Amino acid sequence: xxxxxxxQTEEKMLNKTAMFxxxxxxxxxxxxxxxxxxxxxxxxTEEQVADLFERWNTSLATGEPAQVAANYxxxxxxxxxxxxxxxxxxxxxxxxxxxxxxxxxxxxxNNRVIRTSCNQASDVGIYxxxxxxxxxxxxxxxxxxxxxxxxxxxxxxxxxxxxx
Length: 164
Description:
- With 164 residues, this protein is an alpha+beta fold.
- It has four helices and five strands, in the order αααβαββββ.
- It has two domains: 7-40; 46-161, Nuclear Transport Factor 2, Chain: A.
């Protein structure tokens, strides 16, 4: 067997050591990055998402538009049931709820599909609103939620009366 000169042997050892150190650092950084992702990923249960509708419905009962608007992101999109105007900020969302809350609405979910992912959730289905004058409106709905600053907020809310 042919022996390598001492300098080549030392270079190979240095290369192997460098490769080992690079691999170790890279794996360590990947572990830290994964830990950060795991720490920042909130995956809600279906029950928790269902509770977000109950939180929203309870805020309707306060009669306070600001209480209802507090459920929405500052730049959320609201496509409301009984208005032709799209609402895209806190002020316009509050303005919508001034008239809507005057009717004393109470929402009830008829059926729903909930989907969850990291820091996001959707609740889509059919609900019925009952008003203090005895009138009811059944509507299709979608809520898209984001987990933001330790709190679940509505990013998108669409509600449209059933066509039939």
